[in-house]
């Protein structure tokens, strides 16, 4: 694959994205908590839990915690964990 040349501006945007990945993923998880509360018992719920898993992998959430959340599939458990992660971040 050919190496792409990015302008200095584009390199800055890319670098800031990766520097703020944890903040972006936490925000995404917050949005998913809201969406999951609204989508209880609908076909969309399964896809949302898949997105939750992907976001937690990117956040490097410990496996035990991630498994607990995904096995329970309880939005309240996810919300409490996201709240704790936000407190640690801030």
Notes on the protein architecture:
The chain has 90 residues and is mainly α. The chain has one domain. Helix content is 78%, strand content 0%. It contains five helices and no strands. It has helices at residues 8-19, 21-38, 44-58, 63-72, 75-89. The longest helix has 18 residues, at 21-38. The model has no long low-confidence stretch (mean pLDDT 91).
Q: Which descriptors would you attach to this protein?
A:
90 residues; mainly alpha; 5 helices; 78% helix
**Biggest β-sheet: count, sense, barrel?**
none
Into which percentage range does the β-strand content fall? under 5%
Our Rg estimate from Cα atoms comes to 16 Å
Question: How many H/I helices?
Answer: 5
Q: What would you call the shape?
A: elongated
Class computed from helices, strands and strand pairing: mainly alpha
N-end to C-end Cα span: 39 Å
Mean pLDDT: 91
Question: What's the helix and strand layout?
Answer:
Layout: H1 8-19, H2 21-38, H3 44-58, H4 63-72, H5 75-89
Gist?
With 90 residues, this protein is an all-alpha fold. It has helices spanning 8-19, 21-38, 44-58, 63-72, 75-89.
